[in-house]
Amino acid sequence: MSTKKAVQSSNYYKEPGPKLDKESPFASMMERFQFAADILDLDPGMFQYLASPVKQVIVSIPVVMDDGRIEVFEGYRVIHDNVLGPSKGGIRFTPDVNLEEVKALAAWMTWKCAVVNVPFGGAKGGVRCNPKELSMAELERLTRRYTANLLEIFGPDRDIPAPDMNTNEQVMAWIMDTYSMNSQKTETAVVTGKPIILGGSHGRKEATGRGVVTVTLAALNKMGLMPNKTTVVVQGFGNVGSVSADLMYEQGAKVIAVSDVSGGYLNQDGLDIPAMILYMQANNNSLEGYTGAEKISNEDLLELECDVLIPAAKEDQISKHNAHKIRAKIIAEGANGPVTANADSILEKKGIMVIPDILANAGGVTVSYFEWVQDRQGYFWTEERVNRRLNRMMRSAFDNLYNVSEEFKITLRQAAYVYAIRKVAATLKMRGIYA
Ligand code: NAD
């Protein structure tokens, strides 16, 4: 376990470790972080503090497999920052997760929480495994041992995990139970993204897509565009993409194209999104074979002329290779890191408003915060109350960033980093450095 270390240099801290691809999400994040730090004329010591994680933990996780063999997995938990409050961030179970990736994602969570004004720092965790090759019983033993190894890190007032790639409500329930057994009391607030019967929140599943739509409507309003007169394209038709498409459809927008791994589906007269969701649900979560639209490629889909483009599938979809071909007025980043740093200036020159991921998809962490609040109160809200408060927080976060972007004459993305770094740095300054 290593703790935050001072870096002896008068220059800004440079992340050690493997040489990063210029367009990797982490490299993109660091470039944007550096830009915001320059605008704020951030003290170099403060920069070093914010660029290095508070704590990085690697655990080894021995699991007795169903056939009696012992297999040892590697797990990680990185707390990037806990200046604003306990740290918050998901846990992913993937075959290639590594410490560098988890460090980058933990920092991302710090900025995301600061942007939407939830009182959390940033963290992330992962276990290097292929969950598709594990039985339910093996997955449970793996999750419980990972949790047991991190009992001193996790806690409702310390560090609060959540689902991420290949982890779900059931995994969160096991984490909650393992932590509770060791505390000898039920501690629902130790983790979010739980099933509703175990202290989960109404509205959590739809929260990210709902947040995407709230900020998209705010952006349309700033541009003087009416939702019911806009055209929308959505890449990805999973949790975030399908909810975003559905809520834009409900607003009267014409959703002309959506896609998933099976490809893109286009209808210039507008797709029947509720029908497509029913089709996808009945078809093993895939749009493969849907006949109510013309089939196009995912690359062509991104380049369609539209008012709003919502990339909600995966990272690095709009880069310097295709940014000049994008014909949307607004890009709302449902996914994490769908636009690379190299594409930022190309889109800016084209006058495209990009609503950055750390704002656009922060609806999920906002309702995770509501879940934690409800668990601590032992009093549960209706879905209507959750949605109302989510809309209010997302709308106010959009307005805050919009004002910063006007103040400094910068893009919304740059404003998001300026806002988040300024907030964390100001809080840190008030708290001071404990010696
Ligand atoms: P999901 O697994 O439910 O859906 C992903 C969708 O993207 C699927 O429809 C899949 O078929 C599609 N897809 C995958 N590769 C594609 C490709 N190359 N082209 C087009 N479509 C492709 O995942 P999700 O929860 O909706 O997450 C999507 C993105 O949003 C991820 O970047 C995730 O990190 C981010 N995000 C999710 C949440 C959340 O609460 N679910 C919160 C914040 C950010």
Description of the structure:
- The protein contains 14 helices and 13 strands.
- It is of the alpha/beta class.
- Among the domains are: 53-186, Rossmann fold (3-Layer(aba) Sandwich), CATH 3.40.50.10860; 204-313, 3-Layer(aba) Sandwich (Rossmann fold), CATH 3.40.50.720.
- Strands 10-9-8-7-11-12-13 form a seven-stranded mixed sheet, sandwiched between helices. A six-stranded mixed sheet has the order 1-2-3-5-4-6.
- Strand 4, helix 3 and strand 5 form a beta-alpha-beta unit.
- Helix 1 (25-40) crosses helix 14.
- The protein is globular and about 55 Å long.
- It starts with a strand and ends with a helix.
- The protein binds nicotinamide-adenine-dinucleotide.
- The site of nicotinamide-adenine-dinucleotide (NAD) has 20 residues, from helix 7 and strand 8.
- The site of nicotinamide-adenine-dinucleotide has 20 residues, from helix 7 and strand 8.
Fold topology:
Layout: E1 2-3, H1 25-40, H2 44-51, E2 55-64, E3 70-81, E4 87-94, H3 99-115, E5 121-128, H4 136-149, E6 159-163, H5 169-183, H6 204-222, E7 231-235, H7 239-250, E8 254-260, E9 263-266, H8 273-282, E10 294-296, H9 298-302, E11 305-311, E12 327-332, H10 341-349, E13 353-355, H11 357-360, H12 363-377, H13 383-408, H14 412-431
Parallel strand pairs: 4-5, 4-6, 7-8, 7-11, 11-12, 12-13
Antiparallel strand pairs: 1-2, 2-3, 3-5, 8-9, 9-10
Helix pairs in contact: 1-14, 3-14, 4-5, 6-7, 6-12, 6-13, 12-13, 13-14
